[in-house]
Amino acid sequence: MLDVKSRFIEISHVIEPGMVTYPGLPPPTAEVIVDHDSSRARYQDKSEFLIASLHLCGNTGTYVDSPLHRYRGATDLAGLPLDRVADVPVCLIDARESGRAIGPRSFAGLDLGGAAVIVRTDFSRYWRTERYGRDNPFLTAEACEALVAAGVAFVGIDSLNVDDMADLARPAHTILLGAGIPVCEHMTNLAALSGHGGRLHAVPIAWRGGATFPVRAYVQYPKRG
Questions:
Q1: Predicted pLDDT at 225
Q2: Cut 0.90: pTM above it
Q3: What's residue 1's pLDDT?
Q4: Alpha-carbon distances of 154 from 11, 82, 196, rounded to whole Å
Q5: Is residue 74 helix, strand or coil?
Q6: Angle, CA 86 vertex, CA 78 and CA 127 arms, to 5°
Q7: How far is CA 18 from the centre of its chain?
Q8: How far is 54 from 73, CA to CA, in rounded Å?
Q9: What are the two backbone dihedrals, phi and then psi, of residue 48, each rounded to the nearest 5 degrees?
Q10: Distance separating alpha carbons of residues 225 and 216, to the nearest angstrom
Q11: What's the CATH number for 6-29+56-222?
């Protein structure tokens, strides 16, 4: 039964055919397999259905990285513990004044154990523009080491990449995924979140052998009043 005492804030981008998420990766394409008109004959004009397929790269829209994304033989999407991607308490970090490199000071003194740490930069305002593909805000290696030490369950950011695109060693991915912490990139609408009481849901499909996949991410809050 739907809990009418809750409210939901969506923090994921809509996926559309032809959209570019990450420069150089293929955009999604859609194909109608059976449309409403053609299906009527199959159902003797008693009903009609639409059946379509969506072909996409795992790194499309707002998506979650599993450890397999960075490490051979590591946990894949099907192996992600649900308690790291569903009903996780949110700690929202406002990093809008931190500059591009978001260091450990942004997380100092906070109780982050078991939390989904969501980093707000407002870089998502450039979504689907040329500007979105360069000079993104990112987490430093020192910040990620602090998050691992704090025992976080999940890390998300409203940016092109959790890493500096110029650093091909990808230290943020290396540290976080190496610790089994799922990473979510390309979040949006973080201005709509409040700092307390939210629970994150960002569950990808259970894809055996899959490394990354889009999610319909949202934060659930108790309804006021």
A1: 59
A2: yes
A3: 40
A4: 15, 11, 16
A5: coil
A6: 90
A7: 20
A8: 27
A9: -150, 150
A10: 27
A11: 3.50.30.50
Burial of 169 (0-12, 13-18, 19+ CB in 10 A): exposed
* Tokens, residue 172: 């943020």
In sign, the C-alpha dihedral spanning 136, 140, 146, 152 is positive
Predicted local distance difference test score (pLDDT) of residue 6: 75
Taking 70 as the pLDDT cut, the residues of the chain under it are 1-5, 225
For residue 63, give the nearest of 15, 26, 121, 96 by alpha carbon. Answer: 15
Spell out a b/e string for 98-133, using b for 16 or more CB atoms within 10 Å of the CB, else e.
beeebbbebbeeeebeebbbbbbbebbebbeeeebb
User: How many CA atoms lie less than 13 Å away from 103 in the CB half-sphere?
Assistant: 2
Ranges of each domain in the chain = 6-29+56-222
So what's the pLDDT on residue 5? 64
Give residue 4's pLDDT: 54
pLDDT at res. 196: 79
Handedness of CA 196, 219, 119, 154 (dihedral sign): positive
The whole-angstrom separation of Cα 51 and Cα 31 is 9
CA distance 125 to 131: 10
What kind and span of H or E run contains 177?
A: helix 171-178
From the number of C-beta atoms within 10 Å of its C-beta (0-12, 13-18, 19+), residue 217 rates as buried
